[in-house]
Structures are given as C-alpha cells and as structure tokens.
Amino acid sequence: MLAWVFRPLPFMQQCRRLYGDAFSVSFVGFERPMVMISDPEVIRALYAEPAHGLPPGRDTILGPILGRRSVLLLEGADHLARRRLMLPPFHGERMRSYRPVVEEIVSAEVDSWPRAEPFPLHPRMQAVTLEVILRVVFGVAEGPRLARLRPLLAGILQETASPLVQLIGIATQRFGGRGPWARFEGQLRAVDELLHAEIAERRSAGGLEERDDILSALMLARFEDGEAMSDGELRDQLMTLLLAGHETTATALAWAFDLLLRNPEALSRLRDSLERGEDDYLRATITESLRLRPVIPLAGRRLAKELEVGDYTLPPGTDVTPAIWLVHTRADVYPDPFAFRPERFLDDGPDTYAWVPFGGGVRRCLGAAFAEFEMRIVLREVLTRCELHKADPAPERVARRNITLSPRNGTRVVLERRRAAQSALSAA
Ligand code: HEM
User: Fold this and answer.
1) Residue nearest to atom 37 of ligand 1 (CA)
2) Which of 70, 134, 358 has most ligand 1 atoms within 8 Å of CB, for mutation?
C-alpha cells in the first residue's frame, strides 16, 4: 500500500516483473483485492461488457461533493441516459466554437508569467483549466458572480487534492461534521447557492439557444421521455465536470510540457510543424505524452459477469482494472517503451485497448475529445507565444496528487523570451 501511494510507477514495474500481465493488489480499507490487468485483449473484454458496475470507493469521497445524480456515480440505464444527454456539447462544431475563448484565456495567462526566473507550470495550467471550465462549461460571464466562484472553486479543488482532508472528511462526516470538513461543506454550500442563482437567472432570461456554453446546452437537452434535467441535477453535473475535467487536464498539460522540454528534438519538430500551420505532430505529441504519463492510473469495474484473464476465470463481484501505465509501457506494443517519441503515432493512432488514458467502453471519459482539443490549443498558444526551458536538470518524479499521477515539483520552467503572437492564431 505504501509503495503504491508513494512510488506508484516502480511498484507497478516490480509487480510486472514478479507476476506478469495480471496480479491482484490488496489495498488497506478495501474489502476485496483489486485485480490489475495489462493485456490489451483482456482490457477489450473488460470494457466491452456494459453490464459491469462501478469500481469500489468512487462514491465514498465523491458522493457528498458531486451529489447522487452525478454521471460519474450513476449506474445502468440512469447512467446511460445522462451520457446521451451530456456527450454532444463535448464534440464536433459545438466544441470547436469554444476555441476563441480558450485562446484568450491562455494568452492572458502567458502574459502574466515572470521572465527569466523559475516558476512551476502545473499551477499555471490549473489556473487555465479552471478558467476554461468557468467560462466554457459553466458559461459564467465576467462579473461579481464569477469573482466569487473563482476563489471558492479553487479552494474546493485545493482541499479535495489533500489526502489529509480526504481522510478527515471520511472520519468526521459521520460525527456531525466539524473542523476541516465543516469548512469544506461551507464552501460547497456557497458554490451551490451561486450555481443555483446562475441557473435561475438563465431560465428567466431565456435565449438559451443563442448561448454556446455547456450549461446552456444541458439546460436545453431532454431525456427520452421529454423531461429536462432538474436544477439540482444540473448542479451535480456541473460539479462533476469541474472535478473530472480540471485537475486531469492541467496535469496532462504539465506532463506534456515536461516531456517536450526534456526532449529538444521533439520540441523543435513540434515548433516547426506549428509554424507551418500543421497539427498532426501536435496530436501525436499529446497521444505520446498521455501514453508515457497517464494522469489517472486505474479505471476499473466491478464484474457483473465472469471474465477470463489468462488461465483464470474471475467470478462476478471481482474488482478489475487496467493498470494503465503498465499497458502503455508494454515492449511488445510500444518498442523502446520508455522513450518519448511522438513519431510512433504519426502514421497510425494507438490501438484502442493498448492506449487507455481515458478508460473505455460505456464509462469512457466523457470529456476526452474536449480535453485533447483544449490541450492542442494550450500547447500551440504557449509554444508559439514564448520560449520555455526546463528549470531543473534532474527528471521530474511522479507523485500522487489526489487520484492523479502528477509532476512532483510541478514542472518548473523558465520563460526565456516572448515571441510575436502572429503565428499563435494561424493553425486550425
Ligand atoms: C487529460 C484529461 C483527462 C483525463 C486523463 C481523464 C480521464 C478519465 C478517466 C480515466 C475516466 C474514467 C473512465 C472509465 O472508467 O472508463 C474519466 C471519466 C470521466 N471524465 Fe475524464 N479525463 C480528462 C478530462 C476530462 C474533462 C475535460 C472532462 C469534462 C469537462 C471530463 C469528464 C469526465 C466524466 C464526466 C467522466 C465520467 C464518465 C462516466 O462515468 O460515464 N474528463 N476521465
């Protein structure tokens, strides 16, 4: 358990060496062991079965924050109904319409960075992804409400990232909520009030069709029986999108920059391709960095039906998850697996079940296309607007931050100089 918490990648590597493609790990506090798998064919079989349930533990911490109607916590028909409603605004033309807002957010952010002194990039990426969620997903305009929401949400995100608050939270929830958990609940209530006020104002103002944020799209969407989401449910889904989409995307961006700044050939090839207005090397860079540094290590299921894993037949009720980093570093799928080489994805995308940073099947990340879209804009804008260098020669270590695998020192960089912004807007 300690090795898993403090040195996750060496621990995984050691399990692979000792036990091969499948093994089970017993975590303290969980009633059953978790079976970890890394053979793409077995992962295909796991994710292809829609009847499997949620992995254990998801609602212990997230339940009180996200609410019981969250798409991340519902199962079966209720879950699928939410996915159907929530997927469209994260794709296609609708998604592409968010580009100018994201570009504007990144450009303001880059302008605020200090010159010629080291600073950690990870918190700056968190600021960008929070702002994207507030403006694109929640669609809250500049004004007093946004000014109040911003620090409150940043506070909630900060607190949910602290293992101490999580533990205290679990312990004190049952005792009437005192101490840090009570403070946390106070923040949550304040956010709820602001979100309900925003929703009520939008309903009475009308004109939702003309708005292009995701909250407005969700307010217009209808379930198959013609019903709309209630205000309480809208609040739950907004909190879900915030918690699922903010830290993950910020961390994926921090890793992408870290890997690029430590691999100058890939960086210069990316810069050249951006200058030519191309984006295939950019896409390959994102695929490769999510392969080598998957942000979420596990995306499991509780089996509803038997699953064949090598010589074993796992019975219903078993908890099974791909060990994502182990899948991504299989030498038989990815030659020279620990090298950062975006070229490997230039001609062909990855095999669906050998590249699972977003999980798979009916619970695959709802914001995956949006996250990659946002990453493309941020990488392109930052790299064309300024010249960054790594601040520390020693490789960045992988540390656990809440449920993510994060750069331990926050990807410290130095901004050498700013460039003219003309090429930043050129590529589509
Ligand atoms: C690089 C960034 C991201 C990563 C690595 C990531 C990863 C994941 C993973 C591993 C899952 C679980 C999938 C499974 O169990 O099969 C998930 C679920 C989810 N993600 Fe993401 N995510 C990212 C960004 C986002 C964004 C930007 C949003 C939305 C704004 C989002 C919304 C969701 C939601 C709603 C779910 C629950 C889906 C369901 O249960 O049906 N994610 N994500």
Assistant:
1) 72
2) 358
Q: Which pLDDT tens digit goes with each residue over 301-325?
A: 999 999 999 999 999 999 999 999 9
Query: Could you tell me if 125 and 378 are in contact, meaning their C-beta atoms sit under 8 angstroms apart?
Result: yes
* pTM exceeding 0.85: yes
Return the H-helix or E-strand segment holding 242: helix 231-261
For residues 113 and 319, give the distance between their C-alpha atoms in angstroms, rounded to a whole number: 45
- 286: CB partners within 8 A, 6+ apart: 252, 256, 372, 375, 376, 379
Query: Which DSSP helix (H) or strand (E) runs through 368?
Result: helix 368-385
For helices 264-275 and 280-292, angle between their N-to-C axes, nearest 10 degrees: 150
- Nearest residue CA, atom 7 of ligand 1? 358
Torsion of CA 215, 247, 68, 319, to 10 degrees: 140
Minimal-distance CA residue to ligand 1 atom 35:
366
Residues 6 or more apart in contact with residue 228 via CB below 8 angstroms: 219, 220, 221, 222
Please list, residue by residue across 319-349, b when 16 or more beta carbons sit within 10 angstroms of its beta carbon and e when fewer do. Answer: bbbbbbbbbbbeeebbeeeeebbbebbeeee
